Amino acid sequence: MHISESGVVTVIPSRLEQKDGTWHITFEATEFSPYALVVRNSRSYDESEGVPYYLDEKGNMVFIGFAANGKYIAPEGVIVYTVQNKKDFTDISGHWAQSYIDFVTEREIFLGTSRNTFAPDEAMTRAMFVTVIGRLYERSYGEITPSANPTFNDCDYSAWYGKYVDWAAENNIIKGYGNGLFGPDDPVTREQMAVILHRFASFLGMLPIDMDDTLRYADADSIAGYAREAALYCQATGIIGGRPGGIFAPKDTATRADVATIIKRFIEVGLR
Length: 272
Fold this sequence. Notes:
The structure is a single chain. By secondary structure, this protein is of the alpha+beta class. It folds into 3 domains: 1-39, no CATH class; 42-85, no CATH class; 87-267, no CATH class. It has helices at 98-106, 126-141, 162-170, 190-204, 228-237, 256-270, and strands at 2-3, 9-10, 14-19, 22-27, 43-44, 51-55, 61-63, 67-68, 71-72, 81-83. A hairpin with a 2-residue loop joins strand 8 (67-68) and strand 9.
């Protein structure tokens, strides 16, 4: 992290690399010193007791986003408790993604479309996807606050997704279409999700040490140039699985059930 003279702390994307038998933390220095190395320390919980949460300053329960396999990441200084938080959606019983949906909704990374419905087969928009990763981030690293300088011209910053879009843009997790456009209501494609997750993992310092260098998908040639490195990341980690026939289907869109599955895998990979 870089610490400015005014005390502003900025997370610098970094990568752990081995060179000539020695491990190095590599990052791009954009300012002079001081920099600080902050070690991410995951802690443990008993899964049989439910999911971990803490209380915010107003006494509200905040369920931790990065929590899986008995480990979690929470903001420093909070007291962590566990509780059962299973939801009761009437439209996911027997659905292929039921266990994934249970996982993300227990942690309240995803919310239902109503009190009793999840709408698993509804299309996922770009605004929805960025909101999901924003919620995942702030539940483990601290609340995201609205920006004073909106990034895009086509976003409603008073809407539920507003602060998350600007947070993601400010941290180079999303870039939009250019000309001040983000397309919040456009369905998110598989290659767009791959790129956003790859940048998010880089921002969090969660990129794997060993990355694949060759795409093995049968339709690799149809993956856009800007998304090829992200597709390699997904191939190496299994976060976004291939479709039948070994294809990546980069231009296909995703449902809420698809994204619930992807987010669960992303969390589990991040806590390995």
